[in-house]
Structure formats: structure tokens, C-alpha cells
Amino acid sequence: MTEWTKEDLEAQARRNPDLAERNPELNPDKVDFGWQEDVKPSKYRATRTECNGRTYPSEKQAKDAAMFEALTGPGLPYKAYLQEVPFRLPGLTPTGRPIVHRVDHMWIDWDDKVEFFETKCRDIKGRAKMGELKRSQVEQIYHIRITLTD
Fold first, then answer.
1. Average pLDDT rounded to a whole number, residues 18-37
2. Domain limits at 27?
């Protein structure tokens, strides 16, 4: 079996960011290499939170997901609920990968009407502005409406 170093795992995570999501044992931030490193705080001051076996980047997004899941199922307002729904946007990143915007939550009601929601984040150093731009592009290209949760 191959012994992975932290650098190997980080290189794999850069090449395929979804790899660490699908295989938590390969996430360099969660692997115990036998030494304690300083944990870098989130630049948004968000606390990673686990809810129903899934890890969310913030308590607020975990709370939204729990609420959406609680309203989904037989006898409830919605028949299906999806998370992290990808929408491909025009162009490529500098590394040649497609540009994708992932909408946090999608509901499908019993009449097959689809609703999209995103957990609102703070505007810090332009990143939220980029999210706003991508959200606007998705709405215009795919003719959908994305509602921000409070």
C-alpha cells in the first residue's frame, strides 16, 4: 500500500477538489499524520458543522439543510431535496477546468415545481461578490430563480 504524505494529499485535492468530499480519508485536513498543526480559522469565521452525517461549511448552512430535509417526504410539502446542485458556466478556469456554480439547496414539490435556495453568507473581500456574480449568471443562463435564505 502506498504511503501518502500531506503534500501528496494536498496535490490530489487541488487536482480534484471533489476527491476529498467523496473520500474523507483522503482529506489532508482530516488525516492524522502524528503531529499537531495549527488549525487555520475560516476567513468567514464560520464553524464547520456536521448534520445528519454530512459536514457543512457553516452552522447556518447545516441548519438550512436540516430544515429543508424535515419538510421533504410523503405527506410533507416537498417530495425531493438535493444539495450542492452544479450548474456549468461559460469558460474555463486558468487550469482548464470548467467553471461551475453549485447551488446549496434544491427542492422539488409534488407538482414537480423546482425551487433553488442558497444560504446567504457575509460579504468579505470580494468572494461573496463572486458568488453573487455566478448566481446572477446561473439565473440568466438557466432561466431559474435562486432565493437567498436569511
1. 56
2. 1-40
Q: Which residues have a Cβ under 8 Å from the Cβ of 105 and sit 6 or more positions away?
A: 64, 65, 68, 81, 82, 83, 85, 116, 117, 118, 119
Do residues 86 and 132 share a domain? yes
- The predicted-structure confidence for 53-93, as pLDDT tens digits, reads as follows 888 888 888 888 888 889 988 989 999 999 999 999 999 99
Ranges of H-type helices in the chain: 6-15, 17-22, 59-70, 127-142
pLDDT (tens digit per residue) in 97-118? 999 999 999 999 999 999 999 9
Tell me: do 87 and 120 sit in the same domain. Answer: yes
Same domain, yes or no: 34 and 50: no
